Amino acid sequence: MKPERKSIDEIELLEQMLLVRAYEEMIVESSAAGKVPGTCTSVGQEAAGVGVVSALTADDLILTNHRSAAHLLARGADPGRLLAEVMGRRDGYCQGRSGSLHISVRELGVVLTSTIVGGELSLVTGVALAQKMLVRPGIVACFFGDGAACEGIFHESLNLASVWDLPILYVCENNQWQAFVHRRETMKSDHIAEWAAPYGVDSATVDGNDVAAVRAATLAAAAHVRDSGRPFLLETYTYRSRGHFEPDGQAYVDPAEHAAWLARDPIEACRRRLLGNGRLTPEAAAALQQRVQQRIAAALAFAEASPFPDISEMTRDVYA
């Protein structure tokens, strides 16, 4: 029996991308105002995260990295509880213990968010092996960047997943930047997908700024994993338009390259397409934006009203 997957319209995908963008812009503003610590954003990569997660089923598990906002929000996480977590408040998903870089949401199948580059790659094989041995439904999606792909754990993980026939959908969000270093300084090839072949793992590269294309590619990749029981590597080719860690003036970025990618902004591309084909009117687009901003305003109010954990809870959940 094929797994159930909620159908989704491209207008809904646009709204999800707008929500991710507005949420991260709120984080940036709050950080600049001293309300929250600095954080790593995924601004410019919204189509990659939303497109992939929209194609997963409720039984699928997710392991992600320090740029996780799109994955969490597209999975259905409440922006108010996410923001409360970032602000260290009790009503956050981890009771204010994780900040923005370690959020996990068990009830949504988000196993972990790892701030260690490539950390999720070292753990996904174990999670997928458990799924296989316990005959649980669902595959395991593992998000990482091109920087993590340049580490040894990427090759160890793919090799082991191939040898053990594990149901893993590897998702490399190739955003061109590895912290403050451009990928051209650390790798000769343009694409990570081609690195899967030596391990007998099938792969594909998709335009990571086209949300509909990412969703379609993910549906095909996930079907391959479900049908074969074997891993697959999907590379979303995109661009991180803000700096590595907020605040970041991006003095190290080539202005011409930055401008070229900004012209390919995934949200604007989706909005133009929907307006162009008559699926969306300017009035409806404005209403969509307003609804998202209202959700973010409500999320901020919720987070700011949430209390800080009591000092007596400091050692709760500490096991060693």
How does this model look, in words?
This protein is an alpha/beta fold. Helices cover 43% and strands 12% of the residues. The chain has eleven helices and eight strands. The protein has helices at 10-32, 46-54, 69-75, 79-86, 119-133, 146-149, 152-163, 211-228, 255-262, 266-276, 282-305; strands at residues 61-65, 110-114, 140-145, 168-174, 177-178, 181-182, 202-207, 232-237. The strands form two sheets. Strands 2-1-3-4-8-7 form a six-stranded parallel sheet, with helices on both faces. Helix 1 (10-32) crosses helix 11 (282-305), helix 2 (46-54) runs parallel beside helix 3 and helix 2 crosses helix 8.
Residue runs with pLDDT of under 50 for 5 or more positions: none
The percent range for helix content is 40-55%
Average pLDDT value?
91
Rg calculated over all Cα atoms: 19 Å
What's the main sheet like? 6 strands, parallel
Element-by-element helix/strand order: HHEHHEHEHHEEEEHEHHH
User: Shape from CA axes?
Assistant: globular
Beta-strand residue percentage: 5-15%
> Helix/strand-derived class?
alpha/beta
Q: Give the distance, in angstroms, between the N- and C-terminal Cα atoms.
A: 44 Å
Q: Could you give the count of β-strands? A: 8
